[in-house]
Amino acid sequence: MSHDHFAYGVRKTVALAPADAEARLRELLAGEGFGILTEIDIPTTFRAKLDVDFKPYRILGACNPPIAHQALTQEEDIGLLLPCNVVVREGDTPGESVVAILDPKTQLAMTGRTDIEPLAEEVTARLHRVIEAL
Hints:
Blueprint: E1 3-6, E2 9-14, H1 18-31, E3 35-41, H2 42-50, E4 57-63, H3 65-74, E5 84-90, E6 97-102, H4 104-109, H5 117-133
């Protein structure tokens, strides 16, 4: 299946259940040098805090340590824009999931620093390879 771009990211619908899509996504991210620093399980959080149900939806905070180190060395406050958020959620059709990745170029453009652009390009290329491989 193809992926589509939107104002602040890219998403792809895949013929996998959310748990399977997440497992595959984690493998692909690791292959591009990303680890998962944070995980937010939206249904569990909403159940505990709001007593409401919500479809399967996880937000993963992906980080490539060498690139993050370089970015933080260049701009200490860039940590406000890290890590890269990746969403895995249940799709509209049973057995499908949607994977969405925040566009690092859009995210890091907020710094207004052109010297950060090569890092944003590198992260974008890696994350696009991940979504294309799904």
